[in-house]
Amino acid sequence: MANVKRKYESQAKKDRRLGLILMIPIILVVFGIMGYPFCRALYLSFTNKVVGKPEEFVGLENYIKLFHDPIYWKSLKNTLVYTVGCIAAKLALGLLWAVLLNRSFKGKSFFRTVLLIPWAIPGMVAATTWRWMYDSTYGIINSLLISLGVTKIGIPWLSDPNLTLLTTMIVNIWRGIPFFMFSILGALQTLEKQQYEAAYVDGAGSFKQFWYITLPSISSVIGITTLLSTIWTFNDFENVYLITGGGPLYASSTIATYTYDMAFIQNNFARAVSVAISVIPLLLILIFIYAKANKEEE
User: Fold this and answer.
1) Taking Cα atoms as reference points, which of 42, 49, 37, 53 lies closest to residue 262?
2) Helix (H, G, I), strand (E, B) or coil at 99
3) Among the listed ranges 61-70, 232-241, 289-298, which one has the minimum average pLDDT value?
4) Number of neighbouring beta carbons within 10 Å of residue 271
5) CA-CA distance, 168 to 171, in Å (whole number)?
6) CB within 8 A of 270, min separation 6: which ones?
7) Same domain for 143 and 13?
8) What CA–CA distance (Å, rounded) separates 111 from 178?
9) What stretches of the chain show up as alpha helix (H) in DSSP?
10) Domain range for residue 9?
11) Is residue 16 part of a domain?
12) Domain tally for the chain?
């Protein structure tokens, strides 16, 4: 018996060693694709690298300038407002549509297909189309508002500093609802009906069934969906840049668009990298919070 146990342990060690050896090529590829560029970018954030000149190490100078830069703080504030507002709206509307589509009614397949369209459209096409729709002179949105008597003149969706951030948020919400909707819908369809039948017998109404049965049962799906969408929304560049370009006067500027502006408009790569790296702790905190909450649920 002891010999069999030793033989089993020896074989297990060999299997683990073989597994680690087989992982080496994957680790090298991942490091080559992600690790080295990140380390290089981190180093550049401590230099004065600009286009056409070799970099020189300057320590924390870029980060010190960054924290005294009002545009950076404005962009960070816009990014947080953009992320929180979009995620809250996408979660609420996605959950609502998922609950409705989980019921049986005529034409459900048609509505599922139609509601998937915003997610299926390429981001560049969606942003460009919405930019045309927002046009104060020729846009269909202002034409409809004027014809309905809501306003007498076109609303400057793309030039009013008080509206431009909201303008980009509406497009992000429109595109992101299907992701929440279908993720939550998939979770809803795995729930057992016996739970609801038992709750109904005990006198629980629709709201109590939803609050005490449905939400706890799909909380893990909502959590991972929200986490992924938060990371994507926080780093959303395409939508904001193509619709407003971060303007006017940085009114809709986010960390992503400000990084682009710093790198390719002002040609200061080092400052641009420092802007991007400065928000990594925020994303790590979000991931840590989700991981801790998920562990507690388990």
Assistant:
1) 49
2) helix
3) 289-298
4) 25
5) 5
6) 44, 45, 46, 47, 48, 49, 50, 55, 58, 62
7) no
8) 11
9) 2-30, 36-44, 61-67, 70-101, 108-120, 123-134, 140-147, 164-188, 193-201, 206-209, 215-234, 238-243, 255-260, 269-278, 280-297
10) 1-34
11) yes
12) 2
User: Which phi and psi angles does 106 have, rounded to 5°?
Assistant: -70, 135
3-state secondary structure of 267: coil
Least-confidence region, from 89-98, 202-211, 277-286: 202-211
Instruction: Report if residue 54 sits inside a domain.
Output: no
Residue whose C-alpha is closest to residue 75's, from 278, 287, 242: 278
Q: Are 273 and 45 in contact (CB under 8 A)?
A: yes
Residues 175 and 213 reside in one and the same domain = yes
DSSP reduced 3-state for 153: coil
DSSP 59: T
Residue keyed to tokens 């840590």: 288
130-142 tens-digit pLDDT? 999 998 888 899 8
Residue keyed to tokens 């595109």: 175
Residue 58 lies in a domain: no
What tens digit of pLDDT does each residue of 97-114 get?
A: 998 888 888 877 888 888
Whole-angstrom Cα distance, residue 43 to residue 59? 10
> Are 19 and 71 within one domain?
no
206 pLDDT more than 60? yes
Residue 201 inside a domain? The answer is: yes
Question: Which domain CATH number covers 122?
Answer: 1.10.3720.10
Q: Is the pTM of this model over 0.90?
A: no
